[in-house]
Design brief:
The complex is a heterodimer of chains A (502) and B (335).
Chain A (H helix, E strand, L loop, with lengths): L4 E12 L2 E12 L3 E5 L6 H9 L6 E6 L2 E3 L4 H7 L1 E4 L11 H6 L5 E2 L2 E2 L1 H14 L15 H14 L4 E5 L7 H16 L3 E5 L3 H7 L2 E6 L2 E7 L5 H9 L23 E10 L3 E9 L3 E5 L6 H8 L7 E6 L2 E3 L4 H6 L2 E4 L3 H4 L7 H13 L7 H14 L16 H13 L5 E5 L7 H16 L3 E5 L3 H7 L2 E6 L2 E7 L5 H10 L2
Parallel strand pairs in A: 3-10, 3-11, 6-9, 9-10, 15-20, 15-21, 18-19, 19-20
Antiparallel strand pairs in A: 1-2, 1-4, 4-5, 7-8, 11-12, 13-14, 13-16, 16-17, 21-22
Helix pairs in contact in A: 8-17, 12-13, 12-14
Chain B lengths: L1 H7 L1 H20 L6 H26 L7 H17 L4 H25 L4 H19 L4 E2 L3 H8 L1 E5 L2 E4 H19 L1 H11 L1 H6 L4 H27 L1 E2 L7 H11 L11 H21 L6 H40 L1
Antiparallel strand pairs in B: 1-4, 2-3
């Protein structure tokens, strides 16, 4: 490992309207190293990459490549400078052939015409180096995501890159494919390339990284040598401590009467290919069950399986003692399950409809189209929940998009409460909302459980989970690792479990 | 290998087969159908539509749509007829038509790319504008008496005794040939496919998205103007009501020829056969003699449904295969 800096970023600042995405972040990449960039969702990893590759303009700060100051203007410009990027989602054109995807934009020519023969043979050789033997004239879309990812890397390599950025390249790869990728990464490192590796799979970080840089909330936590940073410390640094002023524990009083709680839903060796490995889980009435784990660990996927949003590929789901097949969310709603999805903006809010309409929509779906809920009843329901959840709005006919994030979230909560669910699944219900409303929502969650509802709670904020949940299932790498109950639940225990892996 | 070629060009092969089937059916049913000139007339009568469809194909492959082309054709006829009547030089008129068409397309492309206007809306504005100007020039039909136009219109290129094509056909075939090469062998052509496949990816791969997108609409404007010139050879007049709905014929031709409205897939040759299929249906209806020519539209409607469903089926099958592969891979590894 050399120590000569290949790329240095100093005091990088970048703000978006209303958010400071990066403040004074430093990052150094040396030639011949694999450098992992880590952080939870919203930590600023993606923004840092985007600033570096010229997708976003930086507000202030310096970037030096090989000792020369650069300012990347566009992805094309950064490519020309020798910074190549492979994104999480394969950013290639599925309608073009494999070979063309590698060469488009810099096609070899003969007599002014594109030389297809050269493109195809050169691609074949390039892929051979990566141990991939496929028909390069076939359209890319015919191949698996893993192959597509490799093609993306091959494209990046052919640009004669000095710096290779891999932005979550493994999220769609299986173990064997990852191994292959890591082999390629190490080979490239040994050839002197600097590789920036963004991922949220910690095992993979330790499998290939020389160095680790951690970001949190747009700020630099620090740069560490991989071998000198134990996993548990790493997780601590990623999650951090949330110094809010909330009361420490509002956990359900039900903790005491640990007496037999009725099981509402049982997942028996259920799995969903590509989403979550086989797991068993009991969800009981009158308790808040937390699904803990880092982003992408399988916690949301588990929730989606229980809501019928993802298909169960093996095992079974039993509700109230009866085996059920949830083909779609409507089936789940009819079984008394409600799900507040993770991404409020895209998956939940109907921006141009009023609060009343937003609340009523799930209930109407449950009733079916032919049992129309009268206007008066709608208004009553809306008013009841506006009062119950203390939604701050001039009136029930206000458009939901005009509300603050926290109040929008309450409307979504009301939507599901109106269906009178037996099981309420909340995926990141407090993300991006102010602390006061957060506390309110947390209290409501516990209150619902006290009233007999089964609640599943998912959050990236450890403190919040610790406060609300009386039982926790811990996930990592799309697998359920185990459960913690009552006094066993602590940040230390959860981290140990995640760090311990399988 | 042959299998691969078949698979990749499946939908264009279907189009050509359909054309042949219709042709053979016509030949077997009607006396005099199997005449070389009947076949050549398909080109003679539809040269302008082939040219317009060429431009449309580029736009559709790039993932856009251009519904201004019918109005452009009418406008060019009207505009040329008016200027020729006033004694302008015919070559200047033709060049001016092409420049205006291209520039109009450029403006629409600019709006679409830089202001994020929906292609449908931007070109709808263009459609209204060109159509409006037609009526501003004159609400009446203006005939073209210019000797150069008349000469080109009436010139017959003899291929054999009693077999001829017009100059327009040569222009149309030249356009098809040149644009086919452009699509397959130039950066511009390949970038059009890339943008149609995934515009965001194309940008991240460093392709000049803005230039290509605007260029595609400019090209479509150029083709529409050229189509207009050819159409004015065909009718030797300009009239504001001409070619209403021509853009839809062009889109239909492209779709029948295997172009995906979602972008990224399509060929100019396919679109040409799309035009010819519409032409041959019309010819059959004329030979039948007792059917209204509007039956053409009914037949085209049926074909469109057929082709769109066919494309969906092919797509769905492709996805299924991919999923099966993925599942297989997963099970192999879990063992």
């Amino acid at each position: 490992m050399t120590t000569k800096p290949l790329l240095t970023m100093r005091n990088i600042c970048k703000g978006f309207p209303g958010v400071k995405a990066l403040s004074d972040v430093d990052f150094t990449l040396r030639a011949g190293e694999i450098h992992s960039l880590l952080g939870e969702n919203g930590a600023g990893k993606s923004t840092l990459i985007k600033v570096l590759t010229g997708v976003e303009k930086l507000d202030s700060g310096q970037i030096e490549l090989n000792g020369q100051e650069i300012r990347t203007k566009s992805p094309k410009h950064s490519q020309e400078l020798g910074i190549s990027t492979v994104y999480q989602e394969v950013n290639l054109c599925a309608n073009l052939s494999v070979a063309e995807n590698i060469f488009i934009g810099r096609e070899p020519k003969k007599n002014g015409m594109i030389d297809w023969k050269a493109i195809n043979t050169r691609t074949k050789n390039l892929l051979k180096k990566l141990n991939i033997n496929i028909d390069v004239t076939q359209t890319l879309g015919n191949y698996s995501v893993a192959i597509q990812q490799m093609v993306a890397i091959a494209r990046a390599l052919d640009v004669e890159a000095k710096v290779l950025i891999l932005d979550e390249p493994t999220s769609s790869l299986d173990t064997a494919e990852c191994e292959k990728l890591f082999g390629v990464m190490k080979q490239l490192r040994n050839e002197g390339m600097g590789i920036i590796f963004v991922t949220h799979f910690l095992d993979q970080v330790y499998a290939v990284s020389d160095r680790i840089t951690i970001l949190r909330n747009g700020e630099l936590v620090g740069e560490f040598l991989a071998e000198k940073l134990p996993k548990i410390e790493l997780i601590g640094k990623m999650i951090g401590k949330d110094y809010d002023t909330l009361s420490k524990t509002i956990k359900s009083s039900q903790n005491d009467k640990e007496a037999e709680k009725e099981i509402f839903l049982r997942a028996d060796k259920a799995s969903s290919i590509g989403n979550i490995k086989e797991f068993s889980l009991d969800i009981k009435k009158s308790e808040v069950l937390g699904l803990a784990g880092l982003l992408g660990s399988g916690r949301s996927e588990t929730a989606r399986v229980m809501f019928g949003a993802d298909k169960v590929s093996s095992g079974e789901i039993v509700i109230k003692g009866e085996k059920v097949v949830l083909r779609n969310p409507l089936d789940a709603i009819k079984e008394g399950i409600a799900y507040c999805p993770e991404d409020r903006k895209t998956d939940a809010i109907l921006g141009n409809l009023s609060i009343r309409e937003n609340i009523i929509v799930a209930l109407q779906a449950k009733y079916g189209l032919f049992k129309f809920i009268g206007r008066k009843e709608q208004e009553e329901i809306a008013d009841r929940y506006i009062k119950l959840l203390d939604i701050k709005t001039p009136g029930r006919e206000q458009l939901i998009k005009n509300l603050s994030g926290g109040n929008q979230q309450k409307v979504i909560l009301a939507r599901w409460l109106a269906t009178n669910p037996d099981l309420l699944i909340l995926d990141e219900p407090t993300r991006g909302i102010d602390i006061g409303t957060k506390a309110e929502i947390q209290k409501l969650v516990v209150k619902f459980a006290d009233e007999g509802m089964a609640v599943v709670f998912i959050s990236s904020e450890m403190d919040e989970m610790l406060r609300c949940c009386s039982r926790m299932a811990v996930f990592s790498e799309k697998e359920k690792l185990g459960e913690l109950e009552g006094d066993e639940i602590s940040e230390q225990e959860i981290m140990k479990m995640i760090a311990g892996g399988k | 290998m042959i299998n691969g070629i078949l698979k990749k060009n499946f939908s264009i092969i279907v189009t050509i087969m359909l054309f042949l089937v219709l042709f053979i059916a016509g030949a077997l049913t009607y006396k005099g159908f199997l005449n070389a000139q009947v076949f050549l007339n398909l080109f003679v009568d539809n040269a302008y539509l082939i040219i317009v469809a060429v431009g449309m194909t580029f736009v559709l492959i790039s993932g856009g749509i251009d519904i201004s082309v019918g109005s452009v054709v009418a406008f060019v006829c009207m505009f040329s007829a008016d200027l020729l009547q006033k004694g302008w030089n015919p070559v200047v008129v033709m060049l001016l038509s092409l420049v205006i068409g291209t520039f109009g397309g450029y403006i629409m492309g600019y709006m679409i790319h830089y202001y994020g206007v929906q292609p449908f809306i931007a070109t709808l504005a263009g459609q209204f504008l060109y159509r409006g100007i037609c009526y501003v020039i004159s609400t009446e039909s203006i005939s073209i008496t210019d000797p150069t136009y008349s000469f080109i219109a009436n010139y017959q290129i003899k291929l054999a005794p009693k077999m001829y094509v017009s100059i327009s056909v040569i222009i149309a075939l030249a356009m098809v040939l040149v644009t086919t090469i452009v699509l397959k062998y130039t950066k511009f052509g390949r970038n059009v496919y890339a943008i149609g496949g995934n515009e965001q990816s194309a940008g991240l791969m460093g392709l000049p998205v803005a230039r290509i997108k605007i260029g595609v609409y400019a090209l479509s404007g150029f083709c529409a103007a050229l189509g207009g010139i050819v159409f004015s050879f065909y009718t030797l007049s300009g009239y504001g009501l001409q070619n209403i709905g021509l853009e839809m014929d062009a889109i239909a031709s492209a779709v029948i020829g295997g172009t995906l409205l979602t972008g990224g897939v399509g060929t100019v040759i396919g679109s040409m056969f799309g035009v010819l299929i519409q032409g041959i249906i019309q010819t059959i209806i004329i030979f039948q003699g007792n059917l209204s020519s509007w039956w053409t539209k009914v037949a085209v409607a049926a074909l469109l449904c057929l082709f769109v469903v066919l494309q969906r089926v092919i797509e769905a099958r492709g996805q299924q295969v991919k999923q099966d592969k993925a599942v297989k891979a997963e099970t192999v590894i879990s063992k």
